[in-house]
Structure formats: structure tokens, C-alpha cells
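User: Hey, quick favor. My workstation is busy. Could you predict this chain's structure for me?
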Amino acid sequence: MKRKVVAAGMAAMMTFSVMAGTGATIVKADDEVTLKVFSNLPDRKNGQGLVEQMIIWKKIQMSPSK
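Assistant: No problem, here it is.
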């Protein structure tokens, strides 16, 4: 019985922690947005690293420059 209570309490805490971190942020159109990308693929000329680099280049091309 005690295990079930502890398990239910832990599940509730995990659920709360996930819900607490999913807040929406409103950004105005004139606000500057900085996107930081982390990748463990140093090779940007082949494979998955090239795919990631192409996505980054496409995003830069689509963004209006100031």
C-alpha cells in the first residue's frame, strides 16, 4: 500500500514538473528572436550534419534581414 502511495506521489510530481515547463511565450512582430542550435554533428558537408546545415541556411534565407 505504501508503495502505491509513493508511486502516485512521484507520478503527480513528474506531471506537475512537465506542465510547469510548457508555458507559451508571446513574441511581438518587432521583437528580435535569437535561435540557438546545439548539434553534436561537426561534419557539415555530409550526412545528417549537412541536413541540419541546410535547414539552418533555409531558415536564415526565409528570415527578413534588417
